[in-house]
Amino acid sequence: MLLTVESAILTRPSNLAELPLTALQTRWWFLCTAYPGGSSPLVGLVHRIRGPLDVDAWRRAIDTIVNRHEILRTLFLDRGDGPVQIVGPAEGLPLEILDLRDVPAAQREQAARDLLHDRRSLSLDLQQGPLVHSCLIQLGDEDFVWSMTIHHILSDGFSLAVIDRELAALYPACRDGSPAEVAELTVQYGDFALWQSTSDTSKEEEDRAYWREQLASVPPLELKNSLPRPAQKGAPAAEIGYVIGDDLVRAIDALARATRCSRFVVLLAALNVLLSRFSDQRDFCVGIPIAGIGRTRPELAKLVGLFNNALALRARLGDEQTFKDVLLGTRDVVFDALDHQDLPWGEVVATVQAPHEPGRAQVFQAMFLHDDVEVASRLELAGLVVEEFPLPIPRILHDIMVYARPARGGLGIRFVYDTALFTPETMAALGRDFEALLREVAEEPACPAFPAR
């Protein structure tokens, strides 16, 4: 009997040792085996903690989280006809402790970044593990950097906020010996995987038809001044970053209100114009992450797991369009895509029969990621100060990823790029032009998107 998306997710039988992968996990399994490289795709938390941290209580809080969430103890075995996931015992997680207080004070931060970069650049074995790593670096008597890295097949960005919220409750409880106010988990990610493997929805075929039409014959994005594309992905990533000031952010927000859009849509429309100018293409896709179907169900909302989906937003632009035309068109594309967001990305790729090239990501080569809050603000601990400790991304599967996130004094913009394709000079020019374009369109939304040369 096929289940519907409204059907209850039940706890699986206790004797069921091997579980199917979700559609999103299957996609990551494919990516990790089809795009060989020197490092695995990871998501992770990095916090600088200043104050009298109780290290033993911190370790016990992390152990509790790992024991609560089975996915953080999961490995993947290839059975020949496909992979399965197997949950390991609830034995916590080793906390690697590194003391840098013997390093000269002026060199400690860079030494910490080097150590964490090495740990984020590893190629993890999905069958043997470990797929989760926790590291606490001591820079001073009351100065620490904590990092948790998780293979992307286990987790997503939203899950990091779940971990932060649980740490905020569990650490003081472990330190003080008091009860922790964390909700009981009624199901686990493996239960969701089993449910998804036997579920169906009446809307699935409608979604498939939408994406089949929307993404038919979409051309790949090729930016000008790029280097020759290598046969396979695998080069390290690099990035440029800057902060656009509060005055420009307010102007962007005013434009969003005036056009009944959001800041996200304004930024995405401007990025579409920027990429179009740098490629001389008027037709391409930009990918965005979304929370995914699991986050809309109350029994799954508080789980660590891979729920984030991806949407391919197609930009079909015209030489005579104004920026406002592009903006309103982008808004419509976003709204339509959100109506069909439940089909997992791997199934979208299969539906549109996107060609597989080891040197190029399928369907979209650029991604845009927009956050509403600063990461450090998610974790508040009494008696301690929690700050961000930014680290570069070691490798990306796409050509370019553009991040926008609130920062002190405005909005932080980061261009992360594949060093096999782009030089720092090309990315710096892209970054400068993006800020200039945002200022231009915020002042005059009716300006030509593609001025005559």
From TrEMBL:
InterPro entries: CAT-like_dom_sf (IPR023213), Condensation_dom (IPR001242). It comes from the Bacteria. SUPFAM superfamilies: CoA-dependent acyltransferases (SSF52777). GO terms for biological process: lipid biosynthetic process. GO terms for molecular function: catalytic activity. Residues 18-446 form the Condensation domain. Pfam families: Condensation (PF00668). This is Condensation domain-containing protein. It comes from Rhizocola hellebori.
